[in-house]
Amino acid sequence: MIARLVNFFGDDHYKRARWVLLGVVLAVIVIADFLVPRPHVDHIWEAIPGWSAVFGFISCVVIIFVSKFIGHSGGIMRDEDYYD
Q: Has residue 25 been placed in a domain?
């Protein structure tokens, strides 16, 4: 069972299936957000359906790009032969 799971996420043969699975999961999250009742919200943007999914996705993308910028420009990452 675990070998099939590892092969699914690691093998290039299942690349299209992984993208389809990602799209289905994202669609289910956004659709589920439309079904959640919001009788009382603290901020106006919390009443927008799909807001949490969009905000979470944008936040993750920003974290990735900021981390890459700090790693490459900030001098944290070094070449493979830096210590040789």
A: yes
